[in-house]
Design a protein that fits this description.
about 170 residues; globular; mainly alpha
């Protein structure tokens, strides 16, 4: 495996954008950074030859951008349905469903939740992406998702501390 192939280099870009996303405590900035990460993932997984991850990343990119404008339940459900349709069309083995399931979780989180709750559901999706990336051989993607899990957990703790009433 070439650590500096074009595919892996784009994965490293996704890494930087993904970490930047999960450092954000502002939901809007979180979604903007996530859109950038998803765009890099589209290119990364296309170069790795993983069509279900490309499809899922495209859906995640669109959903991140649309979720900036609306939080309508019907829109979230349309994205979930599209992910399921992609899975039925593209999945050849059980592991192909991992990025699609992660995208469904992310969709529900971005459209229906805010703050800590949104980030907790995204953390579950991150676990699915870790499994996908290990199977796909994505060095940058695996590193990204492991670091994102840690950064997201730390941000959740920071947000919880900020929300907690202070007693003197």
């Amino acid at each position: 495996m070439d650590w500096f192939s074009p595919a892996q280099c784009v994965g490293y870009v996704a890494f930087v954008l993904g970490v930047g996303s999960f450092l954000q405590m502002d939901d809007r900035r979180f979604k903007l950074f996530m859109a950038g990460e998803c765009l890099a993932y589209v290119v990364h997984f296309a170069l790795l030859g993983n069509p279900t991850a490309v499809a899922s990343s495209c859906m995640s990119l669109l959903r991140s951008l649309v979720s900036l404008r609306t939080r309508a339940l019907w829109v979230a459900l349309a994205f979930v349905a599209a992910n399921l349709a992609l899975g039925l069309a593209l999945a050849k083995q059980a592991s192909d469903w991992l990025p699609l399931a992660a995208s469904c979780l992310g969709t529900l989180a971005l459209f229906l939740l805010q703050g800590i709750a949104m980030r907790l559901v995204m953390l579950c999706g991150t676990a699915l992406w870790i499994a996908n990336n290990v199977i796909a051989g994505s060095i940058g993607g695996t590193a990204l998702e492991v670091v994102i899990a840690v950064v997201n957990a730390a941000t959740i703790v920071r947000m919880a501390r900020q929300e907690r009433p202070r007693t003197v």
